[in-house]
Every structure is written in structure tokens, then in C-alpha cells.
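re: ur question from yesterday

yeah so i grabbed the chain u mentioned. its 157 aa long if i counted rite. heres the sequnce exactly as i have it in my notes:
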Amino acid sequence: MMDLQEISDRLEIQDLFARYSFAIDERDWDALDTIFTPDAQIDYTETGGAKGSLAQIKAWLPKALAQFPSFQHMVATTKLTLMGDEATSRTILFNPMVHRNEAGGETTFFIGLWYRDRLLRTADGWRIAERHEEMAYTHNVPPIAPVPDIGPDIGDT
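ran it thru and got these C-alpha cells back, copy pasting raw so excuse formatting
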């Protein structure tokens, strides 16, 4: 049986994942400061994205997502292992996206993946210290221009 601390931790982490989804979908990059630890490492490379620090990813996201007028990050089913003030998780993500090509045509496509996270309890609550996107499948992906790399001119080094 779960004790009150475990119930609270699980609910707080579930809320953390929901806040991440809304931050990305609303393009509220500064909200990511309340979701990740300041020294977080984020790896989107399996899904065609970048890998870097929180500051680098925050600077990269607006450029990378400019060709997508809308998207939804729907998280579900989390396998969570709590270890005191640390946790690991693997969470399902279903991500429909709309791509706008150079001629203005739009295509809706789908990505299924898992987030593999390492989480830490901080003085400000649970935060993601490491996030790795693990690809599962795609459907109906149109030709898409490559996203920009993270370079010395994006975020910190």
C-alpha cells in the first residue's frame, strides 16, 4: 500500500509532466525553468531534434518548432520508480503535429515515443534532471526541413 508521501510524489510528478506538455504546446519556454533543474540535460536526438542543456534547448525550441503551427503533447501511462528524493520514469507520449511547408500547405502527422526521465526532488518540488526521447513510431510524416543544430550561438555552451 502507498503511504501519503508516495501518493503525493506520484501526483506531483504527474503534474510536472502535464506542465511540461502545456509549456511546449503553448510555446512558453520560460515555464521550462519550473519543470527542469537548472543543470538539466535534454536529449531529443532520437526524434530528429537536438541534445543540450536547458538553456540551449530553450533557445533552440522556437527555431526548431517554427515550421509547426500546432501540436499536442499527450502524456499517459508512466512507469515510475521512486527512490527517496530521486526517481526514474518512462512515460508514453502521443504527439500529433501539423507541419506547414514552404508553399503554405499543411500536413498532420503523428509521433509516438517515450520520455525516459531522471527526476529530483528540489526545494521547489520535483524537477526533471535528465530527459531522453525514445522513438517508438511515426505515421504520415511529410518531408520536413532539418531542424537547426545547437551551436555556440544557441544558448550556453
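noticed a couple things. Residues 4-139 form a domain with the Nuclear Transport Factor 2; Chain: A, fold (CATH 3.10.450.50). also Residues 4-25 form the longest helix (22 residues).
anyway ttyl
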